[in-house]
TrEMBL record:
The protein's name: Lrp/AsnC family transcriptional regulator
Keyword RNA-binding: no
Keywords in alphabetical order: DNA-binding, Transcription, Transcription regulation
Annotated source species: Microbulbifer echini
Pfam families xrefs: AsnC_trans_reg, HTH_24
PROSITE patterns xrefs: HTH_ASNC_1, HTH_ASNC_2
HTH asnC-type domain: residues covered: 4-65
InterPro entries noted in UniProt: ArsR-like_HTH, AsnC-type_HTH_dom, Dimeric_a/b-barrel, Tscrpt_reg_AsnC-like, Tscrpt_reg_AsnC/Lrp_C, Tscrpt_reg_HTH_AsnC-type_CS, WH-like_DNA-bd_sf, WH_DNA-bd_sf
Domain of life: Bacteria
Amino acid sequence: MSSLDAIDRHLLAILQSDVSLSIEELAERVGLTKTPCWRRVQKLEKSGIIRRKVALLNAEILGLPVSVFAQVKTDQHTPEWADAFSKHVAQLPEVVDCYRMAGDYDYLLRVVVGDISAYDRFYKELIRHVGISDIISNFALEQIKSTTELPIPSENPE
């Protein structure tokens, strides 16, 4: 991250907010001409800092208003089980985030569904294919903050 200058950081901040901007608009906002701006964006993509460009969809409008945070516990701590679990979860479109955790539970899933019945179907599909010893499901009542924008460290962290 130390190889990023102020212009790269500015580019990243802008792109996180609106990737649909043209190179011309982007260049103007960061004070560059088109070609150097395009080269910088290409460098950020090739370095892996920019992983991909996506459209962020509105779950409510799509009929997916329910977010469930499922804490998963297993008593099978083998590489084979972990691999099977990871592969299975990756195939479930309802799972939008999955983390392996330290603490009382082994995994945390964020599951997006249309209603409680849809979550029940998801739950039954999940437990049918992988050995899980416990799941605690927490239903979100309100989304206070949601962002895909990462805080970009300054050049000289204090």
